[in-house]
Amino acid sequence: MKGLTIGGVTPLSTLDFPDALAAVIYCQGCPWGCPYCHNEPLREITDRTERDGASVLAWLAGRRGLLDAVVFSGGEPTLQEGLGGMLGAVRDLGFKVGLHTTGMFPQALERVLPLCDWVGLDIKAPRADYARVTGVAGSGEAAFASLALLLASHLPFETRTTWHPGLLSEAALVALARELAEAGAGRWVIQAFRPDGCADPDLAAAGPTAFPPDLVSRLLAVAPRLTITTRS
């Protein structure tokens, strides 16, 4: 489909849409520079694409009855003009639609929310620490504006944070829990960093993040209304 540049497809996933079998479409392009990114090849929009939108839709048409949902991930899907058209076409095929986003473009997110059934929103740090993780000034304001949009929409969603103690201390993670609780966020998934695909040699050399057993208790002590789930 015109305006949507696809970097890859996962034909089947049980993890990317809650309680559903889903295909994942990876969109190219992301202007943020998070050093723990495990999808480094998707940061640039290039001519190297596995499939175009039309071929993906044709493939999905043959997966009706086998898949429940289609999730758009990245990169950052809302960067691309063709996202809304693709989401609508996927819904017309009878699939639920999921979106993984950093929330970097709140206005673009607001336009496509009516076409989504569920959203996974990356929240990378407390608002004041965002630029240190993304390398982009004002990124925290954009992400938390997108969180506010999701809360107002009443659409099912979860917030997600990838945790590397070299980028985000335990104290900062606790501060983020407090911010999310004050905002009214419900489900928060904390994903331990894994070095697979990470282009930063120093972060990758540290290996997978070890999650302290008592950390969830400490987080819930300041944010008791959050539903916190860890993924190691």
TrEMBL record:
Gene3D superfamilies with a match to the protein in the record: Aldolase class I
Ranges for domain Radical SAM core: 16-232
CDD domains on file: Radical_SAM
Keywords noted in UniProt: 4Fe-4S, Iron, Iron-sulfur, Metal-binding, S-adenosyl-L-methionine
Required co-factors: [4Fe-4S] cluster
Coiled coil segments of this chain: none
InterPro entries, sorted: Aldolase_TIM, NrdG2, Organic_radical-activating, rSAM, rSAM_sf
Molecular-function annotations in GO: 4 iron, 4 sulfur cluster binding; catalytic activity; metal ion binding
Protein name: Anaerobic ribonucleoside-triphosphate reductase activating protein
